[in-house]
Every structure is written in structure tokens, then in C-alpha cells.
Amino acid sequence: MIPSQMLKGTLEGCILAIISKQETYGYGIVEQLAEYGFGKIAEGTIYPLLLRLEKNKMITARYKQSEIGPKRKYYSLTFLGMEELQNFTVNYIKLSQAVSNLLDDMKGDAVDE
Amino acid sequence: MIPSQMLKGTLEGCILAIISKQETYGYGIVEQLAEYGFGKIAEGTIYPLLLRLEKNKMITARYKQSEIGPKRKYYSLTFLGMEELQNFTVNYIKLSQAVSNLLDDMKGDAVDE
DNA sequence: AGCAACTACCTTGCAATACAATATAGAATA
DNA sequence: TATTCTATATTGTATTGCAAGGTAGTTGCT
């Protein structure tokens, strides 16, 4: 799947994005990430990340009963989290464009331009 | 600029891409990255990365005189390096599409779909 | 000659983070 | 009872970008 090193920094922003769409919980985020095409992201990745985001006041949590298992810890974005998500988006697009520039240039065999 | 965590994993592939276009050297790579929109990447990032790639047989080096300064260490891709670049490209596109899926979904305020 | 600025390379140590491995536990099912 | 799925959490490790520092050649200015 996608190499872990390539996810660094990106994953955090993506989780903010997922939470911004709708209040959700760790286990559910793992499932959503897989649906979006990130592959199976380990729970040992997600839970520490969520705790970190919570500690940094990017998200807040509340427990809710589930009908099919143990109770779930649902997260929502704080204002700080929304700002951070905005920030992530801008930076991601910046990087994404830089890489596109490079890869396009490469495909074009741009030796003499 | 682009957060350092977001460059992890990506930078290595990008440097392979730059070298694949044309034999080049560390200091020149720093300049090219800036032109492509990556911002000023520290030399303390590039040189260890190049040494690592060389040790892993992704690139090979030879020294050439420069007319304007100390002699330069020019790098080219090995076959292994080309494979690795191919690999990077595939994985980058995979990630890039996953993030796009997510960000588009978010912009669309997809609460009820 | 002396000095600054640019070019060019390298090393050390640190910080951030994805993840494997492991642990815990409730609920459903066989 | 045992297993599987759901669900959260912790510990330790590996990777890697980068700040900080060092070395050295070349050029141009004074």
C-alpha cells in the first residue's frame, strides 16, 4: 500500500477533513480511510493521532453508546481544528502542485527546455 | 513553507525524478526544488538523502570540475533507482487520488450521501 | 594581502510520526 | 465456553527532514 513515510503529515490533515464532514470515531475513521483509497491504516496509527489532536485542542470528544459494540468516542473539530484543516489544505495543494510540475516535466523528457 | 512532515517520503522520490531528467549535483538540486515550488530545502536535508540513495544503489556519483566553484558530485540513476522512481510515481498518484477524493467530498459538504 | 560572499560538500543530533505489537474489554454468535 | 467483531489505548521502533555546525574552493572588492 501507500508507504508510511509518504503519509506523514498528510494523514493528520486527512483525519481533520474526515471529522469536519461529520462527527465520527476512531474505528470508523479507519474504515472511511480505506474507502477513500488510503488502504488499511493501522489502529496503532489512528488512536495516538486522535489523542494528539485532542491534546492540541484541534478536536473534542464525547462518548456515545453503540448498538453493536463498546461505546464510541466521537470527535468534532474545534475552531483551532478548522483553522488547521484550512492550513493543511493550502499546504497540501502547494506540495501537490510542486510534485505535478516536476513529474510532468519528467514525462516530457524536458532535457532541452 | 511546506511542512517538513509532509515532505517525508515524497522528497526522496522527487529527487530521483530530478536526477532522472539530467545528471546533476546536490547544490543544483536545492535550486531546482525551489524553482519547482518546494521552497528552500535545506542542504542538511539533501546531502544525507543523496548519500543514502547512493548507499542503497539508487544513484551513482562522479566528480566533475565546475568553472565557478569547488568540484561537483554529479549523480545519475541506476537501474534500481529507475525502478524506485517508477514505484514512487505509482504510490504518489495513489495517495494523491485518495486525498483528492476526500477533499472533494469535503468541499461538497457530503453529509447526506 | 585580507575579507566577504557564493558555491559546494559533509556530519551530528533532534523532533515528529506511522506502525507493529500488545493489552483491555463489551457485544454478538456459534 | 470460545471466537469474532467492535472499540480504545499504550509502548517501543524506524524513518527522515532539518537546524546547526564544520570544511573548503573561487571570485571580487578594497
The DSSP helix count of chain A reads 5
What is the overall shape of chain A? globular
Total number of beta strands of chain A: 3
Largest sheet of chain A: 3 strands, antiparallel
Strand order of the largest sheet of chain A: 1-3-2
Instruction: Give the chain pair forming the largest contact, with residue counts.
Output: A-B, 36 and 37 residues
Estimate the helix proportion of chain A, in percent: 55-70%
* Beta-strand residue percentage of chain A: 5-15%
Oligomeric state: homodimer
Q: Give the C-alpha Rg of chain A.
A: 17 Å
Low-confidence stretches of chain A: none
Characterize the structure shown.
The structure is a homodimer of 113-residue chains. Chain A has 113 residues and is of the alpha+beta class. The first copy, chain A, contains 5 helices and 3 strands; from the N terminus they run H-H-E-H-H-E-E-H. Chain A has helices at residues 4-7, 10-21, 26-36, 43-55, 79-107, and strands at 24-25, 59-64, 72-77. Chain A has a 3-stranded antiparallel β-sheet. In chain A, a hairpin with a 7-residue loop joins strand 2 (59-64) and strand 3. The radius of gyration of chain A is 17 Å and the shape is globular. The relative contact order of chain A is 0.15. The mean pLDDT of chain A is 91. The first copy, chain A, binds a DNA duplex (30 and 30 nucleotides) through residues 4-5, 7-9, 11-12, 25-28, 41-45, 47-52, 66-73.
